[in-house]
Amino acid sequence: MVVRVLMAGCLALALSGCVSDGTNADFATVSQQLGPPKAGQSRLVMMRQKGVVGVLVGWDAKLDGVPLPSVKNGTYVYADLPAGNHMLSASEIMFPGETNVKISTAPGKTYFFLMQISERGQQLMGAQMAGGLVGYAVGAAVTSDSKNPGPYVFQPVDEGRARSMIAELSLAQ
Fold first, then answer.
1. What rounded mean pLDDT belongs to the chain?
2. Rounded to an integer, what distance in angstroms lies between the CA atom of residue 124 and that of residue 136?
3. What is the model's pTM?
4. What's the rounded Cα separation, in Å, for the pair 1 and 22?
């Protein structure tokens, strides 16, 4: 009986990643509706590919300290912003560091970023799975000098590759 309940729970968890938010707005349609960025503005598009890790939670990023919509599994978000220098950042509750990336944008251009778990984030997940909270604490100490101390990486993606990736994603709400 217990095995059946566990199997049903695992199946439900696996299928929950397939649930759509109902928007399924492809980027080409959204771009066409929005048009190009307004004069003096640029556009930032943050993507998260479909995957197993963190399937039930959204990843939170900030642009110049202002939260963007949560980037859920298999979704993208966008924001129009004044051209110039900006800071992308991300943190998580209980994660011992923050990701900070300076970007510079030009008027009329769109910039694509793929949000992924950082190397440190992967190491800490492994340490926690292997050793629980003690493993996580040891892992946090061992990885404290990581190049990126935060949970995520904002990987720049060229427009051609981004447009093919984003075709499989939905607009986050």
1. 81
2. 6
3. 0.78
4. 35
